[in-house]
Amino acid sequence: ALNPQIIKSYAAGDYEDSQKLMLQSTVFVFDLVLLICLPLYYVIEPLLDIWLVEVPEMTVDFIRITLISQVLGVFNVTFYTPMLASSKLKSNSMWGLYLGCGQFVVVYILYKFGYGVLCLPYILLLSTVIYAFYIKPRILYKEIGYKIKDMAICYWNCFKVLLPSVLIAAGINYLLTPETLIEQGVMLLSVVLSVLACSFLF
What is each CA distance from 42 to 58, 74, 161, in whole angstroms? Predict the structure, then answer.
């Protein structure tokens, strides 16, 4: 919803306001995605049992890795908007090509050496991390003029919600070891409330 305003501010030459909006929206989007993905991470198994009856092997692992990728991938999505606004898309596209080819080669080699199918989502997760924490910030800094300090504050604002939320969720999961439907409901509600509380406090 903020993308048109970010692009409009940039087009009008109000680069500071555009940057401020982008970094703030990144934090809000990160918190919202975390609010969905973290509870799902812990209750995905019983949800799949209800939905699919017979859950295919490794489905839970695939989904959990995907959920982690979605949370960290927030930076990939939001950091793309300034590139779109400034029409500086070449570097991002080139890096995408290099990483895409690199992923194919690495996964092919791993499969040839007998590694399991889970190496694919792990390689995709690694690519997401490289994009989110190296490539996109580098492009924003070098080509669009974002300050490293401002981006570091954005990352910090996201991770000071993420870290306590994950610790609290892991603690709740350890204490409850949810098996019954009521325990799973309590687990879900507790994790949602912990994310909301950490987001509100930090």
Answer: 15, 20, 18
Residue type, 23: L
Least Cα distance to 41 among 165, 133, 129 occurs for 165
- Report the distance separating Cα 38 and Cα 131, nearest Å: 21
pTM beyond 0.70: yes
Residue given tokens 């017979």 in the structure block: 54
% of the chain beyond a pLDDT of 70: 100
Residue 126 makes CB contacts below 8 A (sequence gap 6+) with none
- Give the tokens for residue 72: 């960290």
Task: List, for residues 81-96, the tens digit of each pLDDT value.
Answer: 999 899 889 999 999 9
Query: Which residue in 96, 115, 63 sits closest to 107, CA to CA?
Result: 115
Task: Please check whether residue 88 is in contact with residue 139, taking contact to mean a CB–CB distance below 8 angstroms.
Answer: yes
What Rg, from alpha-carbon coordinates, does the chain have? 19
DSSP 8-state class, residue 2: -
Residue that is written with structure tokens 């092919």 in the block: 108
Tell me the DSSP string of 44-55: HHHHHHHHHSSP
d(CA 202, CA 190) in angstroms, rounded, equals 18
